[in-house]
């Protein structure tokens, strides 16, 4: 009997399905692809992952499309930052842009769609809102039944990331989770895990509080020219320090800074692009650079406070607001005061250590692993947000309301799968009334059923059933009202 039991257990282990994980990113800046690489690293550390692939959807699109979205964005940042700031706020309302993906984007998505069909993933992780929107359309059309995760890469949640279908959204901090649930997104589909970063070096470096402080000055991957002004300012700092300057792929900037710091002898070390950033972050005492989502997340995980310079309007400014709110950063709005601000931190007894403790407190070094665990252990059925629900979420957000403030036929209703206690659909009360006239109730549940004729169903109902039923003939669901437990009148 014992032998038989062991054989059965061994057989069950052998036949346990293994995961094929596709990670979709978009190379607008380095952060989204860095997050994708971190998730891939976490995949390789799991025993249940059979294969993992990272795809940059922009690299598979046309050159014109790629340049407009990638280079075009940074051209705007450089020349008309006020327009970038306006655009960020304009698109911050969820579902302000509704409807199908525009024809040009759809045409440029064909290679990525073909890659999805070829790879046949069991799970997909999106680290940019473009592939997240693409994957949502595939889920609703029944092209894929893979579990899908949206993983944001900044500390604030921006409305473009919210799509019509997904299995889970992973945000960087608790405020983002509260924001989404207040807007109506079911709490069981949102988790605050941090921003995925590569695993920190092991063993962890222990800072010596009595050593001369080490500054890490970063120009970013592409090598922003503002770094020269930062270095020039640090040369006026009176407190003792040493500095490492990372110039990225900008060789001209590296040579310029080498000439600039030559009179300082060994006080400065100047590097070009390096793959040793995790080690540099762990050894530094203070970071000076831009508050990109990945840079900030890496610094916080390393317990490294930041002096913020030259943030991109929109997401980087909001990242900086959060870091300063937590006591882990200061911001320099005027280039001529950078050296003075650094000196103030270094001169005040205990201030640098307090900022390091604040950074350590909010760091989330295991975010990538937490994303995978949350997705793979989560529900198999997606959450579908109907067009009506999207309109209600937009209306509430534009009027500065929360979901529970809505009433009447426009209020939000959740359909919950009682087998897993997970929300599978968010819709309007008027849409629920339509479903209730078509499908029976049994044991207190509304029973959604496959309808092969589909002639009498609206397109939205067909899409909902295709996404939820998948291979099942029917699905009993529990109805829950988002409006403080009060059923709105029809």
From TrEMBL:
Keywords: Glycosyltransferase, Transferase
Domain Glycosyl transferase family residue range list: 245-360
Entry annotated with the keyword Glycosyltransferase: yes
Organism of derivation: Lysinimonas soli
Pfam families according to UniProt: Glycos_transf_1, MGDG_synth
Name used for this protein in its record: Glycosyltransferase
Family, as annotated: Belongs to the glycosyltransferase 28 family.
One MF annotation (Gene Ontology) recorded for this entry: glycosyltransferase activity
Source taxon at top rank: Bacteria
Domain Diacylglycerol glucosyltransferase N-terminal: 32-197
Enzyme Commission number, as recorded: 2.4.-.-
């Amino acid at each position: 009997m014992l032998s038989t039991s062991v054989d059965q257990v061994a057989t069950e282990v052998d036949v346990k399905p293994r995961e094929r994980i596709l990670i979709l990113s978009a190379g607008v800046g380095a952060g989204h692809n860095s997050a994708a690489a971190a998730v891939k690293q976490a995949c390789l550390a799991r025993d249940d992952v059979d294969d993992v692939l990272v795809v940059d959807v922009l690299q598979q699109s046309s050159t014109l499309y790629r340049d407009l979205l990638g280079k075009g964005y940074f051209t705007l940042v450089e020349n008309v930052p006020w327009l970038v700031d306006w655009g960020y706020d304009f698109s911050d309302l969820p579902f302000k842009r509704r409807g199908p993906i525009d024809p040009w984007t759809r045409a440029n998505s064909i290679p990525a769609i073909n890659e999805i069909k070829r790879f046949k993933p069991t799970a997909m992780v999106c680290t940019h809102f473009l592939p997240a929107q693409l994957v949502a359309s595939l889920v609703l059309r029944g092209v894929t039944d893979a579990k899908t995760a949206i993983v944001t890469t900044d500390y604030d949640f921006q409305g473009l990331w919210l799509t019509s279908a997904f299995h889970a959204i992973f945000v960087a901090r608790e405020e983002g989770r509260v924001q989404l649930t207040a807007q109506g997104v079911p709490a069981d589909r949102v988790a605050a895990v941090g921003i995925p970063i590569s695993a920190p070096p092991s063993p962890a470096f222990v800072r010596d509080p009595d050593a001369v402080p080490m500054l890490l000055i970063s120009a970013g991957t592409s090598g922003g020219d503002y770094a020269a002004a930062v270095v020039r300012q640090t040369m006026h700092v009176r407190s003792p320090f040493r500095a490492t300057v990372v110039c990225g792929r900008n060789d001209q900037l590296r040579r310029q800074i080498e000439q600039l710091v030559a009179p300082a002898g060994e006080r400065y070390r100047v590097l070009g692009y390096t793959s040793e950033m995790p080690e540099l972050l762990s050894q530094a005492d203070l970071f000076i650079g831009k508050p990109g989502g990945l840079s900030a997340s890496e610094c916080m995980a390393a317990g490294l406070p930041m002096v913020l310079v030259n943030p991109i309007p929109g997401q980087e400014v909001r990242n900086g607001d959060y870091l300063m709110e937590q006591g882990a950063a200061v911001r320099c709005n005027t280039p001529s005061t950078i050296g003075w601000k650094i000196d103030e931190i270094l001169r005040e007894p205990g201030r640098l250590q307090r900022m390091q403790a604040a950074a350590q407190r909010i760091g989330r070094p295991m975010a990538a692993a937490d994303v995978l665990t949350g997705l793979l252990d989560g529900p198999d059925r997606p959450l579908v947000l109907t067009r009506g629900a999207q309109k209600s979420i937009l209306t509430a957000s534009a009027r500065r309301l929360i979901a529970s403030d809505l009433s009447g036929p426009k209020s939000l209703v959740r359909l919950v799968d009682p087998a897993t206690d997970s929300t599978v659909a968010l819709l309007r009360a008027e849409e629920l009334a339509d479903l209730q006239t078509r499908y029976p109730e049994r044991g207190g549940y509304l029973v959604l059923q496959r309808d092969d004729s589909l002639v009498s169903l609206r397109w939205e109902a067909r899409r909902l059933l295709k996404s939820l039923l998948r291979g099942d003939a029917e699905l009993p669901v529990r109805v829950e009202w988002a409006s403080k437990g009060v059923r709105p009148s029809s």
